[in-house]
Amino acid sequence: MSNNNLIKGSLQTIILKLLEENERMYGYEITQRVKELTAGEIKITEGALYPALHKLEAEGLLSTEIEQVDNRVRKYYSLTKDGQKEVTSKMSELQGFVENLQRILTPDLKPGFNI
Amino acid sequence: MSNNNLIKGSLQTIILKLLEENERMYGYEITQRVKELTAGEIKITEGALYPALHKLEAEGLLSTEIEQVDNRVRKYYSLTKDGQKEVTSKMSELQGFVENLQRILTPDLKPGFNI
DNA sequence: TTATATACATAAGAATTTTAGGTATTATTT
DNA sequence: AAATAATACCTAAAATTCTTATGTATATAA
């Protein structure tokens, strides 16, 4: 796990959104899914991921179940009720931010453009 | 000046891009332009802006001229040669990151979608 | 005359991430 | 058989970037 740049601030949203789509996932699985979805361009570092998961759990947005698979411990995360509400909120926050970014960075384009 | 959050790291790109479009700008002007372009939704704080400008100047991407306007000091920033190259690089980096973000967060959509 | 706008700046603290380590099992390669 | 990579968790120091709070100073508006 290493190098990307950027991502700062969007990691929580990524975690929550992936869990909205997948019911439950474990940490390592999240890193692999992101790598796969972005053709290896975004690599979630473990030093960023695990503290983020622990924080979301401490905030009551995620719950955990530990399972034994092939003598290896897996810690599965799922959205709580509060977590489910938070996904929507965090997603529209991020979407709004990206739209504003585009307004700043591509001043020629009008609303409703293509990337 | 207050609250935004999200995508820490895009401030440098914003500064460089605005200077690519405007030849020269001073700090306060940048905060106002961003506020105006985003209908007040993104407010660049001075505590973030000035250190960022100083850092870009220290890296040789920006140059400065100080001017007196109505008894008030203004510090105008312009892109250096290196700065001009860096805009392109930073812009495609950010654009690529946003595309990857969309791949993670909107798995239904195919490349070339609308925001 | 008091507050707001313009215009710069810094410094403490918070939040997030990178880098670098650590443990342990299983699978693959040499 | 031994070494490496992959799977799977974790933490801690340092770096980076941002917020919040302050400070200075002039001009304008209430």
Automatic annotation (TrEMBL), chains A, B:
Keywords: DNA-binding. InterPro entries: Metal_resp_DNA-bind_regulator (IPR052509), Tscrpt_reg_PadR_N (IPR005149), WH-like_DNA-bd_sf (IPR036388), WH_DNA-bd_sf (IPR036390). Residues 15-87 form the Transcription regulator PadR N-terminal domain. It holds the Pfam family PadR. GO terms for molecular function: DNA binding. This is PadR family transcriptional regulator. The lineage of its organism: Bacteria, Pseudomonadati, Bacteroidota, Cytophagia, Cytophagales.
